[in-house]
Amino acid sequence: MLTEYGPIHEVWIDIPGVLGRGYRTFLYNHVAQLQPEAVIMMNSGISTQENYNIDYAWPSDLIAIERSLPPENGHQKVRTIEGKDYYMPGEVCDPIGKEWFYVDGDLPREDAVLADIYQKTRQRGANLLLDVPPDRHGLIPDESIQALQRLRKNAGL
């Protein structure tokens, strides 16, 4: 995938703590060598950014803010890790509905809720990764497409 499909913009590694720090570092460097422009996310799996655990999710280019929003005073973008400062933007990771993966009947959240998540994420200095799961045929459901189009309009994009 890293060599046969052209430029990849983000590589997401979920539950990185099971890999161990040595292998995470190897994997991070390998991905960075093959896709130097890619942002590499070792998903810390925490809903807030305050307790970033380097033993679980380092190295990483981003801090995951899962199913939550950055604090009202904004995302802390610079982290001191082992005596060195790193710029680590936050990424709010949230599904369009209730579930990460496709589940029959799991509809997108209301337009106002999605717009609020987008606006607060941006105002607080983070990126939004809105998970939109494909159905069992590999297609994005029409309800999700329509919700994304309305979000684009409501957000002024």
The major beta sheet can be summarized as: 3 strands, parallel
Give the CATH class: Alpha Beta
Can you tell me the overall shape?
Answer: globular
CATH superfamily: Glycosidases
Identify the CATH architecture: Alpha-Beta Barrel
Count up the helices.
4
Secondary-structure element order, N to C: EHEHEEEEHEH
Per CATH, what is the topology?
A: TIM Barrel
Write down how many β-strands occur, each being a DSSP E stretch of 2 or more residues: 7
Fraction of residues in β-strands:
15-25%
First-last Cα distance: 30 Å
Q: Which regions are unreliable across 5 or more consecutive residues at pLDDT < 50?
A: none
Based on CA atoms alone, the radius of gyration comes out at 17 Å
Oligomer state of the chains in this structure: single chain
Measured as a percent range, the helix fraction is: 25-40%
List the domain count as a whole number: 1
Structural class: alpha/beta
For the biggest β-sheet, the strand order reads 3-6-7
